[in-house]
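Structure (tokenized):
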């Protein structure tokens, strides 16, 4: 879909700090992360919400989300992750995406009030993307397909 921001990222027409470019989806850093290392995972085809995801794509997509839920804390020294998905309400881009947010005890995240932060530079964002991608590669789910 030409007007979709995430379709543009998948196609490579819109720049993003990619963490994984996999046949099942693309993962990249959220530009307004809850915490640094916050990753968005999207399926390759334009899919507005979870109910629209073809059942044939479901296992691969969630395998990638699952792998990132392990790679993010391992790469960043976090204690765990918060994995979430909005459908329509609070879905700022109408393309299915899962949030994989690094978590530590006492990080201040309460309920669904997500404070946002910024990366200090593109170099810092690239460093987070590379670290998570390397951990994903080490898990056997390659970040490059």
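Design, position by position:
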């Amino acid at each position: 879909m030409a007007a979709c921001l995430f379709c543009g990222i998948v196609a490579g027409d819109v720049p993003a700090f990619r963490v994984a470019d996999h046949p099942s989806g693309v993962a990249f850093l959220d530009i307004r992360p809850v915490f640094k290392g916050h990753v968005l995972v999207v399926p390759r085809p334009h899919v507005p919400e979870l109910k629209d995801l073809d059942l044939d794509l479901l296992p691969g997509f969630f395998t990638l989300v699952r792998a990132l839920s392990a790679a993010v804390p391992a790469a960043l020294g976090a204690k765990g992750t918060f994995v979430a998905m909005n459908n329509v309400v609070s879905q700022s881009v109408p393309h299915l995406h899962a949030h994989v947010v690094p978590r530590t005890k006492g990080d201040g995240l309460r309920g669904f009030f997500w404070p946002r932060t910024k990366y200090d530079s593109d170099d810092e964002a690239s460093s987070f993307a590379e670290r998570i991608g390397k951990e994903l590669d080490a898990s056997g789910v390659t970040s490059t397909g």
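Reviewer-requested clarification: Strands lie at 18-22, 25-29, 39-42, 80-84, 98-103. The domain at 5-138 is CATH 3.30.428.10 (HIT family, subunit A).
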